[in-house]
């Protein structure tokens, strides 16, 4: 789930914590989807 930040909606990093994004977008995207499966 996204948390509220003062950033544009177009910013993809809005759904990620900064620590998670630092390692690399593709890997973190996969990890995010694993944690948030629907």
Topology:
Layout: H1 18-22, H2 25-35
Protein name: Dissimilatory sulfite reductase
GO molecular function, one term: metal ion binding
Keywords: 4Fe-4S, Iron, Iron-sulfur, Metal-binding
Keywords:
38 residues; extended; single chain; 4Fe-4S; Dissimilatory sulfite reductase
Structure, described:
With 38 residues, the protein is mainly α. It has one domain. Helices cover 42% and strands 0% of the residues. It is built from 2 helices and no strands. It has helices at residues 18-22, 25-35. The longest helix has 11 residues, at 25-35. The mean pLDDT is 62.
Overall outline: extended
Mean pLDDT: 62
How many independent structural domains?
1
Radius of gyration equals 10 Å
Strand content: under 5%
How many strands appear in the DSSP assignment?
0
